[in-house]
Design brief:
Elements: E1 2-9, H1 13-22, E2 29-33, E3 35-37, E4 40-42, E5 51-58, H2 60-74, E6 80-86
Amino acid sequence: MKLVNIITEITLKSILLDEIIELGTSGYTVFEVSGSGKRGNREGDFSLSQNIQIEIVCDEETAKKIIDHCKTKYSKNYAMMIFVSDVDVINLEE
């Protein structure tokens, strides 16, 4: 399984979450975050300048779809970083 972390502008939240589901994930977790990078500081002081972090656990094929989609649709006009790592999932309900 893969853990995909997308850090981006809050203005993309609604549409990007819908697209992530359409690309084949069954769920996600969203956090409001702040930080600094090559596009400047994101302190989160104003609601429209906040950043969010979206965490998605999915299979490798779906991770590739999400990354390709974000690169194609958003990379030129929005601040966005994507981190991908291997994860083991432990379901405590089983």
